Amino acid sequence: MTNLILKPKQLCLELYLFCPKKQYFSTINNTMHSSEPIRRIITGHNEEGKATFSINETLIPKVIPSGDAAMATIWTTATVPADVNDPIDGATREAGTTLLGGSVLRVVDMLPGASSPMHRSSSIDYGIILEGEIELELDEGRVELVKKGEIIIQRGTIHRWRNPSATQICRIIFVLIEAKPYRHNGLNLPDVMKHDL
Fold first, then answer.
1. Kindly report the CA angle at 146 between 13 and 121, in degrees rounded to 5?
2. pLDDT tens for residues 16-56?
3. Do residues 105 and 173 make contact, with C-beta atoms less than 8 angstroms apart?
4. Which residue of 28, 29, 124, 136 sits 20 to 30 Å from the alpha carbon of 168, by its own alpha carbon?
C-alpha cells in the first residue's frame, strides 16, 4: 500500500526505471521528441491465495490520431467499486476518454506546442504532473499553468490542455472515474469533444 502515497518524484523513478526512450515526431513543430516508456507492476493472487506479481512489463505510449499527445492506458476497472476478482488485464479493456461505470488509469504525454480539443466528460479526473508544465484552459479563456508535482482535480468541466513548451513533453498521470453529469438549471451538461475550437 505504500505505493499509493509516493511523492511525484518517487513515482517518477518507479515508472521510469530501466526503460529506454521512445522517439515521437511532432507534427506541431516538425521535430523529434523523446518520451519515456512506462513500467507497470501489477499484483494479484496465486492458486494458494498468496500475493504475487502477475504483470511486470513496459508499455510504450502511442500517439493518438489528433497528434497532440501520446497515451498509454495502464489499467481500467469495469466497475466502481472495483472487483479485484476480475481476471482481465485492465490495460486491454476497451475505454474511451473515460469508461462507463468504471475507472481508467492513463499516462498522457502532451507533445511540445500541442493543444487538445476543448472537451468535457461526465467524470472526476485526478491529474498529477510528472514532467514539464501544462496550461489548463476553461470557459471564457481562463487559464492556469500547472507545474511538475502539482495536482489537478477536474470535476466535469469543459476544458483544454496546452503544452506551452516548444521542446519538452509534459507527462501527466490521470485517474478518471465515472461521475454523475453536472446539472445546470435542472439539465445535465453533455459530454463534448470540440475539435474545431
1. 95
2. 323 334 455 444 444 445 568 899 999 999 999 999 999 99
3. yes
4. 124
CB 80 within 8 A of CB 122: no
* Number of other CB atoms surrounding residue 133 within 10 Å: 17
C-alpha cell at 24: 515521437
Give just the sign of the alpha carbon dihedral 12, 149, 102, 111: negative
Pair 162, 28: CB distance under 8 Å: no
- The rounded distance, in Å, linking the Cα atoms of 170 and 24 is 13
Phi/psi for 85 (5° steps) reads: -85, -10
| Residue 179: CB atoms within 10 Å | 15
pLDDT tens profile 137-161: 999 899 999 999 999 999 999 999 9
Cα–Cα distance, 116 to 66 (Å, whole number): 8
Please tell me the number of Cα atoms within 13 Å of 30 on its side-chain side.
0
Domains, the chain, ranges and CATH? 2-194 (2.60.120.10)
What Å distances lie between residue 79 and 42, 95, 165, 177, CA to CA?
18, 12, 37, 9
